[in-house]
């Protein structure tokens, strides 16, 4: 539920440093009255929990996630269900991998002009929210030495054509 996400946001911001009993009380208070802006701990003189700030952060992230989901489609008829940008056959994970390897948005746009900067920016966010399923693909060639190398003069290749 949204209340549980608010609690997890507070946990990520440092609530986990409090004793378990206190955290349980805070979680129950959020469930009882999720619209509360602040929550005093103990008598409220030493510690005041800002629930409103966490709620706004969660709501913003949920809106962003909804927008991301609108831009991506996963259909078994399109690339066997690989998540692609809507209206294209460009896999989201491909763009996210390119960004992770240091490619710029401009370089990606050169190769994929149907994308927008916004779509490129959401690729890593989508992959973080919806990671690939299963084991990573094996690369049998990785870590092995090349067996041999042959070189051919360019003229011999041109003659055979």
The secondary-structure class comes to mainly alpha
Q: Give the total of beta strands.
A: 4
Strand arrangement within the widest β-sheet reads 1-2
Measure the end-to-end span.
Answer: 66 Å
Helix content: 40-55%
Low-confidence blocks of residues: none
Gyration radius, in Å: 25 Å
Major sheet description: 2 strands, antiparallel
In the residues, how many domains can be counted?
Answer: 2
Number of helices: 7
Order of helices and strands: HHEEHEEHHHH
Overall 3D form: elongated
Mean pLDDT: 84
Strand residues, percent: 5-15%
Description:
- The chain is mostly helical and 161 residues long.
- The model has no long low-confidence stretch (mean pLDDT 84).
- 50% of the residues lie in helices and 7% in strands.
- The strands form two sheets. A two-stranded antiparallel ribbon has the order 1-2.
- It has seven helices and four strands, in the order ααββαββαααα.
- The chain is elongated, with a radius of gyration of 25 Å.
- The termini are far apart.
- The longest helix has 21 residues, at 51-71.
- β1 and β2 form a beta hairpin.
- The protein folds into two domains: 2-61, no CATH class; 74-129, Winged helix-like DNA-binding domain superfamily/Winged helix DNA-binding domain (Arc Repressor Mutant, subunit A).
